[in-house]
Every structure is written in C-alpha cells, then in structure tokens.
Amino acid sequence: MLDLKFIRDNPGLIKHAIQVKRIGLDLDELLQVDRELLELKQRVEALQAERNANAKAVPKVSKEEKPALIEKGKALGEELKELEPALRAHEDALKQLLLRVPNIPLAGVPEGVDDADNVELRREGELPTFDFTPLDHVALLDKHHWADAERVARVSGSRSYLLKGEAALLEQAILTFALTYLADKDFTPLSTTALVRPETLVATGHFPGGEDQVYKIEGLDLMLAGTAEVPVNSLYAGEILPEEDLPIRFAAISAAFRSEAGSAGRDVRGLIRVHEFRKVEQYVICRADQEEALQWFDTLLANAEGILQALELPYRVVQNCTGDMGAGKALMYDIEAWVPSEQLYRETHSCSYLGDWQARRTGLRYKGEGGKPHFAHTLNNTGIAVPRVLVPFLENHQQADGRIRIPAALQPFMGGKAFIG
Ligand SMILES: Nc1ncnc2c1ncn2[C@@H]1O[C@H](COS(=O)(=O)NC(=O)[C@@H](N)CO)[C@@H](O)[C@H]1O
C-alpha cells in the first residue's frame, strides 16, 4: 500500500506502475472515491459544527425560542445519521482500492510481460558434463526407491511427495544446513507455523489477488500460508519498534502450502511443484532508508548464493521484469539452478525489496529520528526450499552408478557421508 497523499500527488507515476505491472486497477476510480469521501467528510464536519453551535445557543435563548432550536438540532442529527452509510461505504471502498495499488518499481527495472522478459544478470558454476547418460530426478528417486510416488498419490492426491531413506535424511540435512548457514550470518533462526489469520495475507500483499493460491481451514478464521514470509511479516504488526531494534533479521523455517491453482499441467511429475513443501525464509525489517535496504537486498542475495555454492549447484541470477515481480515489489531477483535433464535453469530462490509498501499494510513502524514513527522497509528471500532444490541437487551430483555425491559442506549434516544411494 502507498501513502494516499503520495498517490494524489503522483497519479501519473502510479498509473505507469499499474500499466507496466499489468495490475487490473482503475486509479481514476480510486481518486473519484477519494474526492467523494473528502466531500462527505467536509459535509459531516460542517453539520457537526452547526449542530454544536446550535446546541450552545439553546441555553442562551428565551423559552419561546427554545423549541425551534431543539427541533433544528434534531434535524441536523438526522441529516448526520443519513450520511453515515455513505461515509462508511466510501471508506471501505477506498481501503479496498488502496490495497490494490502496486509499489513503484525502482529505476532500471526492466519492463516486460512475464518471466520470458526477465533479464539474466550472471551465471555461476560450471555446468556438469556426464560421461554416461544422466537420469532425471524422478528416475533417480525411483532407482533408489526413495519416492513411492504411486502410494503417496493414493494417500494425498496429485502434487504430493514422500521421501524415504537417505533422501529423507538429505532433505532434512539441506534444511538444517541452510538454517545453520543463516544463523552464522546473524539471522535469528525461527521455526514458525504456517497457520495464519487472513489479515496477515493482506499484510504481505498476497491478498487481495492471491486468494485462490491459499488453502482455507473449514470453519476457522485460519488459512495455510504459502511461505513463512506471511507469519513473520505480521509478527510485529501494529507495533512501533524502537529504532535500535532494527534491522531485524530472521531465518524462518516452516511448512508452506500452495494450491498451485492455475498451474494445471505444469511440473506435474516429481518434486518441482507440490502442494506442501518446506522452506527456510530470509526476512529483514530495516529503517526506511533505501540505501541501507538495498545493502540488505545484496546480503539476502549473497546468502542464497552462498548456500547454492556450498551445495555446489550451478545457477544464474535474473532480474525480474515489471510483469513478473508482483504488485508489492520495488526490486526482485530470482536465482535459478541448473537442471541437467531439462537443460534449463529453474527458479529456486526469489529475492525481493518492498520499500514500505508491505509495512504500511502491516502497520509495521519504528520510532525514527525526532521520535516520529516511520513505516519500516521489508525484504525477503528464499534461504532454501525443499523438495524443489533436490531436483538440481540429485541431477547435478549423480554418478555413473547412480549414487549421489554429497558436497563437502553438507557432509557434516549427512553423518560424514560423501555419497548416498
Ligand atoms: N509449489 C511449490 N512446490 C515446491 N517449491 C515451491 C513451490 N512454490 C514455491 N516453491 C519454492 O519456494 C521458493 C520461494 O517461493 S516464491 O513464491 O518464489 N517466493 C517466496 O515465497 C518469498 N517469500 C521468498 O521465499 C521458490 O523459488 C521455490 O524454490
């Protein structure tokens, strides 16, 4: 959400952001509701002033004049009551419209329609060459009986997964490695629930718009978040933090649930796109200082790259274009790891800077200089997400005999093993 005064003063800038981010919002409608609401408020204030003046006059006039003034007071009260519903309706409409105003992309963000227009910034790591025919991750899981996909599909339907034996240990090891890696970078580890109240999804910006991606719990005012960003972002909702408490840095591990509505037919085999997965989420709340915030953006990116480098996975960094960055982002980079069987890079991380757009929706403030409260700036990036990262991991580290090599950095988390399978 952006500041209403900023929107009034910069309609052109906002309309451009709406257009390049392909957001379905008519800013003129919002500005019209805003004007009508201001007029209604002025009318209410004038009537209240008149009614107050009238009430003050009653005791000062003669007995004969009193009834007329009392009548007038009643009529003014009636008129005020009649304005109430319109006032509330306009306030609600304006609030809903404001929640859909996108953040302004930073200068230099490439304009584009979708991920095909994202810009590759750099590639890291040697692509693997195999002196044997490499298997894809599904074949590798089957070869070692690590998946049991048919049985879990019977139990949990499509886009479900199960990992057995050393693959289960590998998934856990990668999560613990990432959490430890980030803790060593002074990110406070958190283990959070995915059960959240609906308003926390409005606070992050997932709602309005992403309702069909989220599982709801029948009969409860709770939903299942698709990322720990949601519970963590609302942890301090409504508070005014002391400035010295910033920056707050979390590495939050949680389950993540996504309906993947609209992804029908995409990545239906294997581990890339499932309904429930686990993620270590990096999250930063910092002062409303873009220069500082962009340094945190670089830190979040470097952390994720450090984790992928430790896992010895080749990857590339891309800058998301305006059509692929979502409403709330001012800046966004994806990291994509190499998947040999597809001869493609596939997204494993998403790094975002949101300015104060998220904090304004969340009511996330700190007491800045001069004691004035300021909305904070927020950033997030994936630390690691499983099982998706197992796809490049298994494929890049497969040996001719089907065993999987464990990179040195991960071995301590795998009981010292250099290979599994
Ligand atoms: N349906 C899914 N199945 C498996 N992994 C997923 C799924 N959806 C997302 N992920 C993983 O989670 C990562 C982050 O998801 S994201 O939507 O791109 N971004 C976020 O959730 C941000 N909070 C940063 O983590 C993705 O890069 C991907 O690695």
TrEMBL record:
Catalytic activity annotated for this protein?
Answer: tRNA(Sec) + L-serine + ATP = L-seryl-tRNA(Sec) + AMP + diphosphate + H(+); tRNA(Ser) + L-serine + ATP = L-seryl-tRNA(Ser) + AMP + diphosphate + H(+)
Q: What class of enzyme is it?
A: ligase
Q: Where are the transmembrane segments?
A: none
GO terms for molecular function, please? ATP binding; serine-tRNA ligase activity
**Keyword entries, A-Z:** Aminoacyl-tRNA synthetase, ATP-binding, Coiled coil, Cytoplasm, Ligase, Nucleotide-binding, Protein biosynthesis
Output the GO biological process annotations, alphabetical, semicolon-separated.
Answer: seryl-tRNA aminoacylation
> What name is this protein filed under?
Serine--tRNA ligase
